[in-house]
Specification:
It is a single chain. By secondary structure, this protein is an alpha/beta fold. It folds into two domains: 153 residues, Aspartate Aminotransferase, domain 1; 265 residues, Aspartate Aminotransferase, domain 2. The chain has 13 helices and 16 strands. The strands form four sheets. It has a seven-stranded mixed sheet with strand order 4-12-11-10-7-5-6, with helices on both faces. The protein is globular. Bound molecules: pyridoxal-5'-phosphate (PLP). The site of pyridoxal-5'-phosphate has 15 residues, from α5.
Amino acid sequence: MTNLLHDSSWLDFEKMHVWHPYAPMEGALHSYPVKHARGVQLTLEDGRALIDGMSSWWSAIHGYNHPVLNRAASEQLDKMAHVMFGGLTHRPAAELAARLVRLTPEPLERVFLCDSGSVSVEVAIKMAIQYWQAQGHASKQRLLTIRRGYHGDTCGAMAACDPDTGMHHIFNRVLAKHFFAEAPTVVNDAEWQDSEIAGFRELIEVHHTEIAAVILEPIVQGAGGMRFYAPEYLRQVRALCDAHEVLLIADEIATGFGRTGTLFACEQAGIVPDIMCLGKALTGGYMTLAAVLTTAEISRTISTRTPHAFMHGPTFMANPLACAVANASIDLLLDSPWQERIAAMSGAFARQLAPCRDWQGVTDVRIKGGIGVVELERPVNMARITERFVDKGVWIRPFGKLVYVMPPYIISAPDLDTLLTALTESVAEELAAG
Ligand SMILES: *Cc1c(COP(=O)(O)O)cnc(C)c1O
């Protein structure tokens, strides 16, 4: 390949022509060009090295450029990058299904492999609807969820995101209308009060004949506000779903693979969903891949009634390259002391972030497993605080009032210290700057 763009001007071209997530094109904000990445370090084109606090949005749990994952990718590449999954199959997909069935709680044992988290949410919603349809409950097509959630950017997934932060009014005519209960507010089971679930209970009692499934992010609400809630809420939701013939979809796309301290967040409530979505860390941040797991009962019901098939099938379904890397990533995780690593992160957050709670301008500090969140009174100045972070040699990407980190699990104690020191110093400077 020869470069079309000149070394000195490719970035100008990029800025003019390439969209970035949730950003204007004719943009005020510029993006920092990464030349290469290894371990927890991102190296910019100008040679500056940044300690990564974001794991590229929950995904790069083993860090970057990992020799084991590289080998898995290149060995699979020598065999084939991709083949269609219609009528063909391959060992990497079977191996991945075997791992996911083994890791997730019973009775989740049927696996749909798709391209991205958002698509897996679409698949989960369609599965729930088709399940009830197959049983003659065609009216069960709506979802019940909680506010402040995030489930992805495609239209089906978006319809279940928080109506305000998800900007439902803009897409009013294309988004399905679902039921929204207030998000739970208590974090510990010890503080549990029945009023937490009252609104949710009323919605499911009144509307269950229209509701196919409840969808929510267990324990941690991610991109909708980085909020944590009590496991008791999930137990109550599970019981209400059972009582009212409603399926439970657990969106573990962000929480899966250890981030909250257990392999899956559902484990903290001791509940099992009927459908579970996994993504993000599934391939250790190498490739886009997601999985939807469900029970034999649901897959059987869908498969034995008209139209005798589940109506979904993306072009890149079960991409072998992504499956091979996912298998290597899961093995790498399970062979690592990931619980201790998450606990060490929690400890460092408690030591270094928790003191910010007392600062003027900070409304809350929240810590859960490998997630540390500092919530401010006012939204940060993104360009300015990002520059502060980069100047201090770290990569942290706040949104709104939330400055948060979820570093790769492999981060060393000194790097974590540097990351958190840079975080608190930059927040202090921002608050002082006003
Ligand atoms: C990121 C995320 C999604 C969407 O995944 P994409 O791969 O970005 O489509 C869905 N649900 C949750 C909880 C997520 O964190």
